[in-house]
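#struct-pred

JT: dropping the chains for the assembly here, can someone run the whole complex?
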Amino acid sequence: MSARGIGRILLASLACGGLGCPPAQGVEVPKPADGAVYEQYVQPYTAASCATLDCHGDPGRPLRMYSELGLRGDASLRMVSISELRPPQTLSAAEVSDNVTAFSSVSKLEDGTHHLALLKPLRGGIHHMGGKLWPNEQAPGYLCLRGWLAPSADTPIDTGESCALALDALGP
Amino acid sequence: MKLLAQAAWLLACAGLGACIATSPEEAAEQALGPEAPGVGRGPYHRAGQPCLVCHSEEHNPGGLIYEVAGTVYQAEGKARGARGVEVVLTDAEGTELHARTNRVGTFFVRVSSSVSAPTLGGYEGQLLVPSAPVFPLRVRIGPDGEGQAMQGLIWRQGSCAHCHHDSPDETSNGPIFLQGGAP
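RK: done, full complex below.
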């Protein structure tokens, strides 16, 4: 390959790295999951279990999440330190929508149960920096996210109950 | 075109050289800036900064490895550290660790084979433990039953200042301070 060709490849790589490129051919981007279900049931659990500032509340994470105690979408949403006397502002509609989009933008494999947000925290699944949060597919936390991300008429899941149990398990 | 290709090569090499010369950990250390004037290296330095940047398994130019470390201030505004504050850490296995802040408000938890139970000592602010706490952690500061509890969990970051830095904004809950004033 000529130096000219190599130079073009390097420039293209730099451009893609800086500007972002569309997903590769053949990778399916799923439709947005139900935002109402997410906001009511899933968000409280993911806020406590996933979205802390030291985990997915980091704006650099591929799956970035906003939460009341963690990352906010705008500095105006946290002007003072949070305390028992100064509770946090509730999530804005834009933050909730962005959270749903973040989950929905994670490429899934052939079926919804292979969503990375389901596989990575599950024991035996793909490596997860945050460790294995769920010992098996019966864990309430797993069912909470699966019921929302990969609902199935064949194996119905009570998402609300699962998320509540998962949140309770984290303690007060 | 030949000049363009050569320029592209030079840029690539310069970038690669920068990557090799400075690790992310070293970059984080450099970002902390210099020591405060008049404060030497030791348990009283860099109060309010993320301790594990230099005191972790991955990078420890400080020579000591901490599991958890941070600073508590007397009041909002990050004026003075709060000395003698009890910091209670409860790990995922229910083990409670009781650290106590030093004269600049800093505490640090370090694993040591020389202790069979959590022991305060060595340096002011240091808590030696026989084994590392298991994340996630719950935290409370102040006397038993009367302290202020952190509302969230610490899942993996041992430096309090990783999340509690500068002023409150979208990426920080602000410094840790005693809401009821200094004890």
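JT: nice. The mean pLDDT of chain A is 81. Chain A touches chain B through 35 residues (CB under 8 Å).
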